Fold this protein.
Amino acid sequence: MAKLPLDKWILKRIDKSGSSSLTRDMLEEYQLKKLNETLAHVAQNSRFYREKLKDFNCNLKSLDEIRELPFTTMEELTLRGKEMLCVPGGDISRIVTLNTSGSTGPPKRIYFTEEDQELTVDYFHHGMQNLVDPSDNALILLPCSAPGGVGDLLKRGLERLGCRSVPYGFPHVSDESVLEELFKIITEQGVTSMVGSPHEVLSIAEFTAEKTSKMPETLSSPGQPLITRTPQIRTVLLSTDYIPDDLCRRLEEIWGCRVFEHYGMTEMGLGGAVSCEVLIGYHPRENDLYFEIIDPATGQPVPEGEYGEIVFTTLTRKGMPLVRYRTGDRSRWIPGPCPCGSVLKRLDKVLPRNVKKGSYNRSR
Ligand SMILES: [Zn+2]
């Protein structure tokens, strides 16, 4: 697995010729530049933001000045999403429809251009290097059928890093024949890594454990993975839902694998933040997204290390940029540098949502 793949990727993107490693100053200078470009883009091309930002200073001198700008809410995205568009409809290559809470409200629609989708593939290409290398074969348990859907973009990212993949789609694990089929795929195709949602992956792990425990020659000794005949699952990436720690521990126990976590939502362009080798919290995609943690009651930033609501601004999106979008998710910044050596900030595990909004499960 590559060392600090995201830092190297961002350095390349910033293109500071002569710099051997990324620094926080370089990254923040880049973020400010991209933030001002985004504000100019939306003020000029989006009907919604032209009106919303008309009385605000959109030429920021520092990242902190973003606090003066108004938030964008999920309700606004739901009701006025189309007015947020910055490009003609013909330039949109993918629309993701998300059901909002309850079944009666109108759905949210998120629009992407080809270029926006390329940013996601590029992120998956580099972010996945935290957990796989070209020797791996990754089973993709996210929706794969729609071109440009999350599974498809992930498959493209994995291809770029030279890794094989099996795009399976979302597994309906309540059906035992699905579990049988997945067991066969894992064993026969030499799957070594898996990307999926927590409860589905756990069901697969429990099934494989039970299946192999019935084979007398596979009985394991204490401290060893239960499965010895099936190919080794080295890494798992869990996404889409709240991920309980005991679920991660159980996966480690069954497969002897390392469990990485991803936090993201469609509004972020699918990818948001991913664990590094330290496996505590996750590093955000800070070159494409500017994150803030705010007090949901006052809208003011919380002191570092305290929990609040995650707010983000897209820095590089063209079709439907979002400015200070309130996610409804709660987390905090883990104080201090990460032991992995990255200059990227570290978000702590996102707390469980009362109402699930914007998860992959809701996308088609
Ligand atoms: Zn780290």
Q: What stands out?
A: The two ends are 31 Å apart (CA to CA).
